Amino acid sequence: MRSLDDILEEYEFLEADDRYRLLIELGRDLEPMPAALKTDATLVRGCSAQVWVYPTGDEDKLHFLADSNAAITKGIVALVISAVQDRPADEVAAMDVAGALAPFDLSNQLSSNRTQGVPNMIALVRDHAARIAAG
């Protein structure tokens, strides 16, 4: 998975249509999430599309599997995951993920329907990290 900084570097040079294509590409590049993990328990609430996030890993290296049934939304999920993927749990729990995503200006680049679930995705990831970090 590409780093958020690498993605941002490319994103900043693109026009709106190409930014959509980049998000779709990021979604396609997500590690496959087995269908068996796409359950009500892993479903992110408040998203216009269906989004699933499944945490794995341990205190030293959190890892997330994620998927969505909508291409653009899946790309947004990929951005969120790339901000936190394979980092220590305590770091993710304390991280300002929304701040890390702010340079992408998603709320002005995409419709509100596409971005409304982003805070819920971030909360799920950070809450999981906080539980793991606390032991």
Automatic annotation (TrEMBL):
Residues 13-126 form the Fe-S metabolism associated domain. Pfam families: SufE. Gene3D superfamilies: 3.90.1010.10. InterPro entries: Fe-S_metab-assoc_dom. Belongs to the SufE family. This is SufE family protein. It comes from Qipengyuania algicida.
